[in-house]
Amino acid sequence: MPRPRKIRRVSKPPICSRFKPVGIPARLLQVVDLSVDEYEALRLADYERLEHKDAAERMGISRPTFTRLIDQARKKIASGIIEGKEISIGGGDFQFMHHMVRCRSCGTLSNYSQQVPIKCPECDEDDLENLNMYYQGGRGRGRDRWGRGK
């Protein structure tokens, strides 16, 4: 029986959940599914330029696990770009360290490490969307809202 998977720590959700080539309808594209923990590994290694050891500590996983994650993420991103596929970010075994909230009225993005606010800090409206809930969903995504498989 395999060991249970560790929950990976992710600092905040991605700002966008889908990327696609311009000029091709989404219904005609194949989809590459990038998990949120793979996204975080890519962000830490390539965007923040952290060493694998330091990035693994931030995510609460071992260095070899981090290396496997970053290799998978790079392969998926390369496949999406080179083969002209849609890249979708979601799912995976992870937990956010911060709450990211978007105001539906003015579009302001805010990060909170503790309690999510009731009103927007910019426009004082109460129409807030917790982006963390959008990305939760366990391992993998199954079928998307159009009924396509992976």
Task: Give a nutshell description of this structure.
The chain has about 150 residues and is α/β, with parallel strands linked by helices. It is built from 4 helices and 8 strands, in the order βββαααβββββα.
Question: What key attributes describe this structure?
Answer:
single chain; 150 residues; alpha/beta; Rubrerythrin, domain 2; 2 domains; three-stranded mixed beta sheet; three-stranded antiparallel beta sheet; globular
Written overview of the protein:
The protein is globular and about 45 Å long. It folds into two domains: 14-95, Arc Repressor Mutant, subunit A (Orthogonal Bundle); 97-136, Rubrerythrin, domain 2 (Single Sheet). The longest helix has 20 residues, at 63-82. It contains four helices and eight strands. The chain has helices at residues 36-47, 52-59, 63-82, 131-135, and strands spanning 8-10, 18-19, 31-34, 86-89, 94-96, 99-103, 109-112, 128-130. Helix 1 (36-47) packs across helix 3 (63-82) and helix 2 crosses helix 3 (63-82). The two termini are 27 Å apart. Mean pLDDT is 83; it is low at 138-150. Helix content is 30%, strand content 19%. The strands form three sheets. A three-stranded mixed sheet has the order 2-4-3. The chain is an alpha/beta fold and 150 residues long.
